[in-house]
Amino acid sequence: MTVGVYAQDGFESIIAAGEKDANTLMGAYIAPAMEGLVYAANGGWATTAKTHKTLGFDITIAANAAMVPRSNRLFRISELAFENRITGTPDMTPTVAGDAEPSMVEVELRDTGETVSFTMPEGIGEDVPMNAIPAPAVQLGVGIVKNTDLMLRFVPRVGSDDVRGQLFGLGIKHDLMQYFGPLEKLPLNVSVLAAFSNMKVDYNIEEGDAFDGEHQSAEFKLGTYTIQGLASLDFPFVTVFGSLGYSGGTSRLDVLGTYEVDYEVAGVYTHTEEYEDPIALKYNVGGVRAGLGARLNLAFFKIFAEYTLQEYNMLTAGIAFSFR
Question: Which of 142, 133, 131, 135 is nearest to 55 (CA)?
Fold first, then answer.
């Protein structure tokens, strides 16, 4: 008989499953966001293969939306490997990118027979267009020497007492047409690009939301990299550009602090289990990417869009102010 019940106050309710099983459940639920953000953060680095003249520059504002594959929007609880006896009603529950009704999960501890139940977190699929994981990008590109651009993404540590984050990214793009003599006069441009970025977000969990405890917080870290070959046809009013390369990175989620879970049997209090820093998840993803896009050139003002084929297909759109 299940007596200890925790309502859906947030993802931290999953901690009631016990440390190992909580990591298993949370890992399945949050995976699309953790993987999708790697791909999304690698988007929007270039809208042309052409490089600036020395000290020419551009400011680019882009939105990247990495679309979660349909197969990653739901998962079956019965297909996961648990330490305790865990069942879900229904068995199929949404990931963070899904939009189905979440399951009620019942946990029976193998050692003691104590039971507890909680509702899995809902997905955000209904709230986000295309079931996509978004990642905005604000970027400064500057021409340095030998037909090379240096690109910078930077957000200082900002936020509120509840959520604070920071971002740093650096990229370099080098023109290859300069090595082919007369061919560099063509509207065709070819270059290579390499870039990386790091992001960190701290989220303060209001103590007592789901469990009593101390110093409750979540920490998200993201590290990404991409290597691409770029080609573009650059005309006065329109640019058509494409890319082929590799995109990858690592994301981490750590739930920190202490969490006190009360277990009962048949309405009789048994004990309180305290879990310290109960969740630590790490995802490594990567794969080949191929993109195709177009840019409208209105003097120094640019409007662009790109579609990228990869594990999480991505749509990128934005504007830029470019001064050659």
Answer: 142
Identity of residue 7: A
Q: Are the C-beta atoms of residues 252 and 244 closer than 8 Å to each other? A: no
Q: Kindly state the helix (H) or strand (E) to which residue 32 belongs, with its residue range.
A: helix 19-41
DSSP conformation class of 71: G
Give the tens place of pLDDT for each residue, 122-149: 998 888 888 899 999 999 999 999 999 9
pTM: 0.90
Q: Which residues have a Cβ under 8 Å from the Cβ of 72 and sit 6 or more positions away? A: 31, 32, 35, 95, 97
Q: Nearest-5° angle of CA 18, CA 124, CA 67? A: 110
- Sorted by sequence, the CB contacts under 8 Å of residue 165 that are 6+ apart come out as 155, 157, 158, 159, 199, 200, 201, 202
Positions in the chain short of pLDDT 70: 1-10, 207-210, 264-269
Domain locations in the chain? 4-323
